[in-house]
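ping. complex inputs:
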Amino acid sequence: SQQGEEDPQALSIQEGENATMNCSYKTSINNLQWYRQNSGRGLVHLILIRSNEREKHSGRLRVTLDTSKKSSSLLITASRAADTASYFCATDEDSGYALNFGKGTSLLVTP
Amino acid sequence: DAGVTQSPTHLIKTRGQQVTLRCSPKSGHDTVSWYQQALGQGPQFIFQYYEEEERQRGNFPDRFSGHQFPNYSSELNVNALLLGDSALYLCASSFGRRETQYFGPGTRLLVL
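pong. complex structure:
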């Protein structure tokens, strides 16, 4: 079952702008991960944030996690055309090891 | 350092046939998970292998089975293929069951 749900479903911005994607989930988690997927290819791991962390940075990426609201956000600063892809959040539940994905946010960055 | 590799990249089968997909994990990884991704959807967990045993299974019928070898590589077998099995099949590996999962490029299966 899909636990995570990304919002918005689609996002279109211009190069240089910031892109923010949100993820909500339903059950207690151990960690939350964000992945990028280009044109139906394999998923590229972007960042992992553990349930006891609130914010994490990696290059132009900033991820926040609010376990009380069961939500996370991914911010991509100074977007580039190469950031065009689908972005997924994935959670693993306390009770298991499977990653549960949402349907993703489709990001289009135009020059 | 080679990442996760999968073979074949594409496959076309007909209904009722059987298929085997293969995955080699990233060097140093001991855990392999398989996911099915239908068009326009997020990946769905099929099962996870650790120490050559199926440790957790998602909501998939028994037609889906797998195996993990002593070198940690893995196979996914699907019997009695249905049209609805057409999807991108993704393999992911990790060191330990709760760490970051790294995905391969996937095998795109089309069932006619």
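The interface with chain B takes residues 1-2, 4, 30-31, 33, 35, 40-45, 48, 88, 92, 96-104 of chain A (CB under 8 Å).
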